[in-house]
Amino acid sequence: MPKRRSLRMLLFVAAAAVLVLSVRFGFADAWVDQYALPSNALSELPVTSTPSAIQVQSDPVPDAPQIPQAAVLSNRITEYHISVSLDEGGGGLTGEQTVTWKNPGRQTISELYFHLYPNAFAPGSTFINESKGQLRGDKMKAGSNGSMEITTLTTEQGETLLPRLHYVQPDDGNKKDRTLATFRLPEPVKPGASVTLRMKFKVKLPDVFARMGKAGDFIMAGQWFPKIAVYETYGTGNRTTEGWNLHQYHGNSEFYSDFGIYSVRINVPAAYKVAATGFQTKAPVINGGRKIFQFYADDVHDFAWSASPNFTFVEDSFSSPGIPGVRIKLYLDPLHKDMQDRYMHAAKSALAKLGEWYGEYPYSTLSVIVPPASGNGAGGMEYPTLVTAAAAQTDNPGYDLERTLLHEIAHQYWYGLVASNEFEEAWLDEGFTSYTEDKLMASIYGVLPNIPIEASYMTNPEPLNQFSWRYRSSEGYAENVYIRGKLVLSSLERQVGDKTMSKIMRTYFQKNKFKHPTSADFKKVVESVTKTKWDDFFQSYIQQGQMTDFSVDSITAHKTANGYESQVLLRRNGGSAQPVLVLFKFQDGQTIRKKWDGVQNHAQLQLSSTTPLEYVAIDPNLNVVLDNRRYNNYLKTEVPKEERTRFVTGITQIIEGLFGTLVW
User: Fold this and answer.
1) Active-site option among 315, 356, 408, 424
2) Per-residue pLDDT tens digits for 428-446
3) What are the pLDDT digits (tens) for 393-411?
4) What region, left, alpha or beta, does residue 344 occupy, with left being phi > 0 and alpha being psi -120 to 50 degrees?
5) N or C: where does the chain have the smaller number of CB atoms within 10 Å of the terminal CB?
6) Which domains does the chain have, with CATH numbers?
């Protein structure tokens, strides 16, 4: 009996300890993660997220090691073991890697394909031709070229394959483009089997431009190693047969890769600090004036790193419902060293909201890099578990600091975890991220988007499911993929309601994380949640690139024995059917509001009144998100037909918006 009582007492103490620890790390509230909350709810953050709760650790401890977790979250098609050394004087990288690729398909594979992205910065590349050496306001400096050369390529047994290597240009046939390479394997890879290759490579870094390069002693290494292309099985993406997904590096496009494991050793001068995807598994080793870092990441589809001797390092731990425990690491440019509270609050707030709205952030780290002003081209970019904020241009930035950071952290969900093909359907990342960015800015800072102004930007709408380099221009790409993409989601939200939209977004994330979904997959989720067909909506706005266009086409009025009779012709000139409010104003001040279902492309209404009809306005409250031609939403009756003047409903609100909220 005494032994049993002792055992019970030990079990009680152990249970109490587990309970206390669960509260400390937020697991006691994990049930909250099972419920979708309104995506625009202005709820307060957990106490641990407020600026007053931030406890920061400054230098000299940015290199604490961690232990990999056992859980397997993705299919882990690739495994990279890379060692890279920075030549800070010459501005280059020297690396070697052992990479293992597993055949996920049902066919035997005889050739492998690799992306050699640094060759995009070589003269004559497709990227340079399409971008004209400009991207997001930055210009490539004359003579600042970049390149990648594979110097050795062998099998695991030592057989050389380098003579077999040749470059391919499946998108445009540009023979000067060397961003995609292929070679034939000595032995085919059977379904489910793997092949391991060894290679050495050299990278010449350009001056920072288009997400990567060098700026003084600041280094941004993005898309810096030979990366295996994605082999898609039947049903992946839009495929009806399995095969390689092969695209060059284009002026507008970003990237697409398989999930896998990365173990990366980075050799830099001893004075440098290094931020990278994943986490360190051991303390850095200093030898001969050099410092060697060892990083590890699993269930990610890319690996990026940055280095500088000037970073101000700040770290804090954070947990909340949906965020089991994350080390947030800030690598600040010295100009922003006193803004650590702003960066940390934004990062914590974003993670808290994303975990609450969509689901768990499964990684143990999130690193934020603030580039120097001279490295502006590296700013505002996303990588797995690592983002770059806007470059430190001023010591007193406005809300652009928070907006950019929230946008990039939102990418951790749509780019990092859902991981759609950005070559082929970029809106599934950028549009979803821009939509989420607006939600975060509203929820955390009370900054609301100006939807009517943003819709007015849509002067050249194009289909959203087209390849990124097929847009008419880089401006057209940004206009459609970022702004119109998020407006399509906002339009859907207005039609289904906040609560249902929250459920749609959460369900889409939960069903498709680690799966590279398509627009068709999103449509399936929308229809599953709403129990309604959305064929016209997706065809109009995603496949055909339409906008909504409601108009008051004509008003015919005449006097009768009992007063006045008016005939009003309403039209829907573009977009899918949706209900819309119509306002009728009479000269005696009386107003009538009617709802038109918008199913037919026109409607003829007849009204009898004691006083003349003064005007008719469609959507006076500006609820139709995608209407970008509001000048025809209003028509006055008393003006002769040949002199009728149309103007935008609610012009006062729009002018106020111009001087108020600034959009992306």
Assistant:
1) 408
2) 999 999 999 999 999 999 9
3) 999 999 999 999 999 999 9
4) alpha
5) N
6) 71-309 (2.60.40.1730), 441-544 (no CATH), 549-647 (2.60.40)
